Amino acid sequence: MFNRNPFSDIPPVVKYLLLVNVVMFIVAMFVPVLDSYCALYSFRSPLFKPVQLVTHMFMHGGFWHLFFNMFSLYMFGRVLESYWGSKRFFIYYFVAGIGGALFYLLVKEIEMQVLMSSMSPDAIEEVMRNGADILMQGKNYMMPELGKLNLVLNIPCVGASGAIYGLLLAFGIMFPNVEMYIYFAIPVKAKWMVIAFVVIELLLGILNAQGDNVAHFAHFGGMLVGFILLMIWRKKGEV
Question: What is the reported pTM?
Fold first, then answer.
């Protein structure tokens, strides 16, 4: 019998993650202030809340950001959830996502420490107290060092990419010889694609990709934490 349900082959956790991400994207279009509550801000920002370590994973910066993350979740997530089971997949997804966020915040903290080392206490206090409000008005400080610190402090991170890159790494480790296609034309084994992504995200994070506004260290952190979790599970003989 023909199955008319296009979601019948999607396991439950992936299905609900897809649904929640899409719903949150639509809601955020009509309630823009949601970003200031759910996006992930620096620990030092007055806008930071611990719950953002989870909520930022359901916010996206635009349609294509959402589309590629959800497409990857569908492609890799359904295979891994079917292989591991829903409980283990759920744990892995959120550990990779939250771990990637913590790694990203750690790098941001180091960056801020470097910036603040050459600034006066009064200048730092000014940014800490008023920087977020200034950015919300669409403005920033004219002095370069204040402006840069304000961007690092108060520009948030959004998206499920840390968790998604964690899934990509897990797929490459669990199914290393499966062929994947770049631009739907060039076949590459999963293990080589994963290695390429690890190197690219690390290099782009270090070089800051010319200020491309992409949280490369969150991507790299998601893969790193995902790898550590997989190694722990393997040592216990659980995967």
Answer: 0.88
Transcribe 166-201 into DSSP letters. HHHHHHHHHSTT-EEEETTTEEEEHHHHHHHHHHHH
| Per-chain mean pLDDT for the chain | 85
Token pair listed for 225: 């934490």
Q: Where would I find the beta strands (DSSP E) of the chain? A: 179-182, 186-189
Structure tokens at 81: 């959830």
Residues facing 187 on adjacent strands: 181
CA 145 to chain CA mean position, Å? 27
Say which residues have a Cβ less than 8 Å from residue 65's Cβ, sequence separation at least 6: 158, 159
- Residue 215 has phi, psi (to 5 degrees) of -80, 70
Q: Which two tokens stand for residue 79?
A: 């295979």
d(CA 65, CA 159): 8
Span 107-143, pLDDT tens digits: 889 889 999 998 999 999 999 999 999 988 889 998 8
